[in-house]
Amino acid sequence: MSTESDITPSAADRHYPLLKLALELGPLMIFFFANLRGQWLVEKFPALSELGGPLFVATGLFMAATILSLIVSKIVLGHLPIMPFVSGIVVVIFGSLSIWLQNETFIKMKPTIVNALFGVALLGGLAFGRSLLGYVFNAAFQLDAEGWRKLTIRWGIFFLFLAVLNEVVWRNFSDDTWVAFKVWGTMPITIIFTLAQMPLVLKHSVNLETDGEK
Fold first, then answer.
1. Beta carbons of 150 and 205 less than 8 angstroms apart
2. Contact yes or no for 84/102 (Cβ under 8 A)
3. Phi, psi (5° rounding) for residue 3?
4. Is-above-0.85 flag for pTM?
5. CA 70 from chain center: how many Å?
6. Residue 48: count of CB within 10 angstroms of its CB
7. Tens-place pLDDT, residues 139-197
8. Residues 118, 48: Cα–Cα separation, whole Å
């Protein structure tokens, strides 16, 4: 089994950017709509009632979609993207615990744990002289060493912010509000943050083809 281990994008990553995006966002969208239409799904597929209420049905489908997306990624792209892979492991573990124990806390804490893990990993990597963010964004752009360092710091802090934010939302609002925020709140916040990093990305971008000709 191989994960992305080179900050130079693979040919498959360059040829299938939309597929890569769909594989990463697809399971999350399924989770949202399964929770929204949980009762309807149980009526159409009675076997799903064994999982529990709407949130548990959504969790089960989320797990299945996550595993499927990783399989497709491995077959089509030839590797497993680091962030979806790590997130997928946590989804399966905590999703299984949620369904088995019928305790929603486990799946609700999944974003907290994943984001905190990424934040600590990114900032911790810098302490050892490694900008791990390059392994995540390898298909999107290439930066010089200083650019990766600055961007890694910003993303590390942002992941920790998302971890805290998830804790605040799931502990103080309803299940439906938390699920909606997980999709329609976290996603826009992440997009806005990503766009805000573009001046830094443009300033420190490097052209691999040009560099290779020198």
1. no
2. no
3. -115, 170
4. no
5. 12
6. 19
7. 556 778 788 888 889 999 999 999 999 999 999 999 889 988 988 888 889 889 989 98
8. 32
